[in-house]
Model the fold of this input.
Amino acid sequence: MTARPLQICETLLRDAHQSLLATRMRTEDMLPVAEALDKVGYWSVEVWGGATFDSAMRFLNEDPWERLRMLRRALPRTRFQMLLRGQNLVGYKHYPDDIAERFIVQARRNGVDVFRIFDALNDTRNMSFAMRIAKREGGHVQAAISYTISPVHDIPGFVALGRELAELGADSIAIKDMAGLLTPYAAFELVSALKREVGLPIQLHTHYTSGMGTATLLKAIEAGVDVVDTAISSMSMSTSQPPTETVVAILKGTERDTGLDLSVLADIARKEGEIRKRYSAFEAGVAAVDVNVLQFQVPGGMLSNLLSQLRQQGAADRYYEVLEEIPRVRKDMGYPPLVTPSSQIVGTQATLNVVLGERYKVVPEEVKQYVRGYYGKPPAPIDPELQRKAIGTEQPITCRPADMLDPGMEDARREIGALARCEEDVLSYALFPQVARPFLERRAKGLGGKEEIAAAIALALFAQQEAKARHRVTAPAGPQVSAWTISGRPAAGMRWLR
Done:
């Protein structure tokens, strides 16, 4: 038996708490397990990216760059991985190339080793610039395929995409199954085809929402997948990843034995279980398995927030109507994979269609921009009637969306002025001006201690109680439903799965 150890990417410090705890884990609660994580021997630990960047400033009064530096010092031997949304970086819209370049340069200098780069539409034009800069800076470029199911998505298409990403310079390919839709046998077929026809290392990321997560990983392992994403058991399953210890134990004594020490993992799990209790107010509240993800192909985080937002509008009884409308809107929009930001775009439009009682009576600006082509090329043509209602006779753009953007770094530097102590501060402002400016102002005044964090938690608990009380109140009619917004970020309380 020839040993081919499976490698593990641990998601505890990024996607696990983003999926389960609304991205609220503080750096001070990551550091107690850092030393143990550094001893495990993971292929990588995912520590940054996705929603953790703006959430750190928005909700925790923390500098995301300082978190990265602190974790780098605490885990000196471990490869660090981040999730980068292509030209969206860690935001919800496209940014100019000069901002994208400086962000990637600073991310690399501050400790990121592996850049997992994806685009919500699988439009490689939105990935190529980030891939090139990350490669130039000496990072490992992991180009991701956003996996989904539709009449226009199939395994040959994903393999063709994998070949294109390899030609663009990818060092490895990630299968990003953000909704937990990848079945075990489809995983076997897809991994086999990518290994055979692309010839790069393959990493698989899935979520446990549908209940298939561990089985999907096992079939992918049989097909020769090189790395899989898992989460330590006390932060696994539900909308998170399959449990690390389970995968390690299953493979013990086989040719894919990870070689990881279960006793070390168990110690981390115990510590993390205690830490998780501190964040009970932010638990996603999604059942261990949610079959709605299979029927409606909606990520688990999107499901929980859909119900929460409908309750706040006094429209919880319309939940299944909205679920049924989401696939119809997705079809009209050309079957985009439901991942940030397309999940927000589709979900918002579906909700408006149902609550207002008329399809596309109101079309949000983000939907109009999507139809105009400013998010990229949809996988299939957009429905002509939706296009007419959204933009009339205007013609969508056909170029790379970022080519339409003027440089922004110097404008951001000038606008934020002396509040920025370094280029990282300028980047934070360039990406999230409405969040970064108040954060930098608080820092300049010397605010941001534990007292403020405690007050923020107390406020969140109060808001949660208020939301529960509002469930019994009828929401006002009319334009109030437009509280669902994706202008720059999800509306307050949304915990979209990314």
Notes: The mean pLDDT is 89. The radius of gyration is 22 Å. Residues 450-470 form the longest helix (21 residues). The chain is about 45% helix and 10% strand.
